[in-house]
Amino acid sequence: MKLDVDPKQQFEILPELGRGTFGTVFHCREKGTGLELAAKIVPYKKKKDRGDMVREIDIMSCLHHPRLIQLYDAFDYENKFYVILELIQGGELFERVIDDDFVLTEKACAVFMRQICEGMEYIHSRSIIHLDMKPENILCLTKTGNRIKIIDFGFARRYDPGKKLQVMFGTAEFAAPEVLNFDEIYFYTDMWSLGVICYVLNL
């Protein structure tokens, strides 16, 4: 991560792609190469907010897998984080689930779930628990294709077998009982969420 370096020296910020609770995502272009990317801009005021973003960037920087969104660069500049990510324009898997015109066959569900499990297997192999798996955090690479990427590592935590890890955050509908009960969590906490995703896809 680059400190006190203006990202606009390296990247051209283009129109907004979307807005979330903590930040805004813009289309952007690397000036030197013309590479099309996405820039997630997250302002912060509190030390804790900065620490949360530093942790997320640190986790993403060690995850390199075709089923996960890839971090390209990151800047901490003038009380804002600029997180440069690969550009994915196929929309959320959730949008397909609720689209009455989209026929989600059992075969397509199996294709999606296999890729999600591949990504999760890799995340866990790096001793990381995602903790917010849901259809909104799975993006399709294209509008019509079935290839996906897992996104949003804002709640992710590194797992240390020597320490008891407890959390109470995530999305309630997809959260495992141990999260809701504030009990100790483990890699299987993510697998509960994947089970709920599989159920939702097959409704």
From TrEMBL:
Keyword hit for ATP-binding: yes
A Pfam family that the UniProt record links to this protein: Pkinase
SMART domains the UniProt entry points to: S_TKc (SM00220)
Cross-referenced SUPFAM superfamilies: Protein kinase-like (PK-like) (SSF56112)
Start and end residues of each Protein kinase domain: 11-203
Top-rank taxon: Eukaryota
Example GO molecular function: protein serine/threonine kinase activity
Example GO BP: intracellular signal transduction
Keywords recorded for this protein, A-Z: ATP-binding, Kinase, Nucleotide-binding, Serine/threonine-protein kinase, Transferase
Family to which this protein belongs: Belongs to the protein kinase superfamily.
Name of the protein in its database record: Protein kinase domain-containing protein
